[in-house]
Amino acid sequence: MSLATTFVDRVDAGRQLSAALGSFAAQDPIVLGLARGGVPVAAEVARALGAPLDVLLVRKLGVPYQPELAFGAIGEGGTKVLSPQLIRHLTLSDQEMADVEKRERAELARRLTRYRAGREPLPLNGRTVIIVDDGLATGTTARAAVQVVRDRGARAIIVAAPVGSREARDAVAGVADVVICLSTPETFRAVGQWYEDFEQTSDDEVTRLLRQVPAPRGTEVVNARFTATPQHSNPRGT
Asked: Residue 81's closest CA among 63, 58, 102, 103?
């Protein structure tokens, strides 16, 4: 695939991403979609691989006067990833950061209640886990997601996205075992510019997709040893 590809929508992106992830099907992976926009992409991946689907909650910590710029991210289980260099550059105060984190943790808790509806998250201990998002802008939320999944005992972690900046891809490659990013445009401003339809994913759509792709029986069984490295991957540390 070319380094600058436009996707029709998240479903199209998920189908194309599935082709690059096909070699992982034999490893009995679990697919986790980053809420909200990553879930429609992840649903297509889970269907193609015959894998169980679950949601992973991570919230960006946006700069107060520029919310789209993340100075960090938080995830389930108290996980927090910060960007110290950006924090120093913007001279963010402890109080400013605490206020943002308090608001985002409240939203994270709300979404957990809505999406899981009392259902326990899928056990990840000893498993190969594929974390899917609709794009990698800065990589901050994906890095937090990797930390959450490692804390839950995953054996191997693949981060997969249809499109992303080269800087984000490289940053995530430093913490994940494999990063697959189909398109890495030389000029990258926002994830949405690489989709013809980038309408916001709703809470209702997330819950519907989670019901449509139920977890297969036997998901508690530890999967085979992690071995494969797909053509489009970037092994950790490279």
From this structure: 58
Total number of residues shown for the chain? 238
For 2-20, how does the pLDDT look when each residue is reduced to its tens digit (9 = 90+)?
A: 456 789 999 999 999 999 9
**Residue 30 pairs with which residues in a beta bridge?**
129
Whether the Cβ atoms of residue 75 and residue 144 lie closer than 8 Å to each other? yes
CA angle 22, 181, 116 (to 5 degrees): 75
Written as six digits, the tokens of 78 are: 């108290």
Report yes or no: 197 and 33 within 8 Å, Cβ to Cβ: no
- Short-list 169, 132, 157, CA closest to 16: 132
CB neighbourhood size of 104 (10 A): 18
Q: What are the structural domains, with CATH classification, of the chain?
A: 10-57+123-235 (3.40.50.2020)
Does residue 157 contact residue 129 with C-beta atoms inside 8 Å?
A: yes
Q: How far is CA 1 from CA 48, 151, 179, in A?
A: 19, 34, 16
How far does Cα 122 stand from its chain's mean position?
Answer: 16
Closest CA to 218 of 121, 122, 117: 122
Q: How is residue 210 written in tokens?
A: 């989670």
Confidence of residue 37 (pLDDT cuts 50, 70, 90): very high
Starting at the edge strand found earlier in the chain, the sheet holding 66-75 runs: 58-63, 66-75, 80-82
Question: In this structure, how many other beta carbons lie within 10 angstroms of the beta carbon of residue 121?
Answer: 17
State pTM to two decimals. 0.85
